[in-house]
Amino acid sequence: MSDSASTKEENSRTIPSTQSPSGKRKRDLEQPSSNPKAPKKKRRKRGKHVDDPDIDFERGINGALWRLDGHLLADYLAQKTKQFNDKLGVLELEERRIPAQAIRDTSEWREQRVLENFAGFLDHHASQHKSSKNLSIASKTKGAPHTIVVTASGLRAADLTRSLRTFETKNAIVAKLFAKHIKLADALEYVKRTRIGIGVGTPERLIALLDAGTWDFWTAEKSANGLFLILISAGALSSAKLDRIVVDFSHIDQKKRGIVDMKETQEPLMRLLARKELRDRYGMEDGGLDLLFF
C-alpha cells in the first residue's frame, strides 16, 4: 500500500461520525423548531416598588413621607425645588425655601394617610388651633375659607371633597376649587357668592382664584397683647380668614409620583405656599397660619 493510501485510511478512521446514536444526522439536530411561531418566554420585569414596604399602590400612598418632621420636610421640598430649577442660584433657591418653623409637625399622628382617614386628620389638627376649631363653621365673608386643601389633580380633589362632606353645612360649604370641567369664570362667580368653610383645589386654580381682582387691605386681629394689623391680599378667593393650608402630600399615582414629584404641580405649589400674604403668617403665635402635610 502506498503512503498516500495509508494516510487516507487513517484519516477516515479518526473523523467522527456525523450521525447520532439515533441515526439522525448532526445538521438535522441543529435545525430550529419546525414551528416558527412558537412564542419565546419573556422574562418578567419586577418593578422597583415590589420590595418597598412604604409604597401602597392599591391605596395610592407613600408611607415614608408622613414620618417626616418639619425640618426633614423643609429639606425635602428644597431638594425638589432645586431639582426642577437647576439654573437658580443659591440666593434664589433660598427665597423659595419654606422654613422648617412654618411647617406644622404631623408625624405624631400615626394613622395611615389614606382617603378614609383624611377627615379625622383634619379634625384632629383643627382642634389644636386657637381660632377655627369647629370645621363646620365658616366666616360670613363670602369666599373666605378657614381651610384650603391643595392636591395634584382634579380627580383627586373630587375624592377629597367627598371625604370632607361630614363638615359641610348650609352656611359652610366644602367647595370644589379645581380646574377639571369647571371654567375659571364660573369658579370666580361661585366663590364670590358662597360661604366656604373648606376649599379643595389644584395649585394653579387656587393661585388664579387668589389673584383674580386682587386688592390689598389691612385687617385688625385681637391678641393677648392687644390689637395688631395684618396685610391681606384679597381676590375672589380670600386668605383673610384662612387658618390652615393642607397639602395632599403622601398621595401617589401609579408611577409613584406625588404632588412634589412632577414639575407641573411642584412649581405652582411652591409659588402658592411662598405667597407673601401666606408666608408672613406661618408660625405666628397670634393670627398664625398652619401649614400641614397629609
What would a concise description of this structure say?
The chain is an alpha/beta fold. 31% of the residues lie in helices and 15% in strands.
Task: Describe this entry's structure for a reader.
The chain is α/β, with parallel strands linked by helices. Helices cover 31% and strands 15% of the residues. The chain is built from ten helices and nine strands. The strands form three sheets. Strands 4-5-3-8-9 form a five-stranded parallel β-sheet. It has a two-stranded antiparallel ribbon with strand order 1-2. Strand 1 (55-56) and strand 2 (61-62) form a beta hairpin. The longest helix is centred in the first third of the chain and has 15 residues, at 70-84. The chain is globular. The relative contact order is 0.14. Mean pLDDT is 81; it is low at 7-18 and 45-49.
What key attributes describe this structure?
alpha/beta, 294 residues, 10 helices
Spans of at least 5 consecutive residues whose pLDDT stays below 50 are 7-18, 45-49
Determine the number of helices (DSSP H or I, runs of at least 4 residues).
Answer: 10
Rg estimate, integer Å: 32 Å
**Largest sheet: spatial strand order:** 4-5-3-8-9
DSSP strand tally: 9
C-alpha geometry: globular
Explain the layout of strands and helices.
Elements: H1 3-14, H2 26-30, E1 55-56, E2 61-62, H3 70-84, H4 90-95, H5 118-126, E3 147-150, H6 154-163, E4 173-177, H7 184-192, E5 196-201, H8 203-211, E6 215-223, E7 226-234, E8 244-247, H9 263-273, H10 276-279, E9 290-293
Parallel strand pairs: 3-5, 3-8, 4-5, 8-9
Antiparallel strand pairs: 1-2, 6-7
